[in-house]
What does this fold into?
Amino acid sequence: MLRALRRVADLTLLELAILLQFIAFSLCLKVALSVVSLPRLVSFLSGTRSHRVRKLVVFLQEDSEPAQLFPLIDLATRVSHGVGRCLPRSLLLFWLLHANHRSVSVCLGVSKSLTALEAHAWVEQDGVVLGDAVSLIDRYTLVLRLPA
It folds into this structure.
């Protein structure tokens, strides 16, 4: 928690404004995930075009790269979801990148370990994992890919 607070303290005012918006969107995703099926939610997020997202995310730059967005998205979902935040984090990243007309997919996988059932969600663009370490993704078997 202390490390997260240090990260927030190091943010610029612009990044802080974006972070607050990401937290709000993350909380909306938390509600949506409890009432709507995942494929339907991804379909809804895919239908949201960039001009609408630009109006919602006031301070987001059009040429934002995943490497710039991911730390803020990760921090926002850490605040709003805590443990088990990979799905909302992936959905938020998917939504923002798709709004920038990028061909991305939300991927879901289950653990290859036979001792416990674990799942993980991540985002891919043209087969390249975005925001997660490939070594982490290699521990999971892909069971569902939801393209835009």
Summary: The helical segments are 2-9, 13-35, 38-47, 50-56, 66-81, 86-99, 134-137. Residues 13-35 form the longest helix (23 residues). The mean pLDDT is 84. The first strand starts at residue 104 and ends at 111.
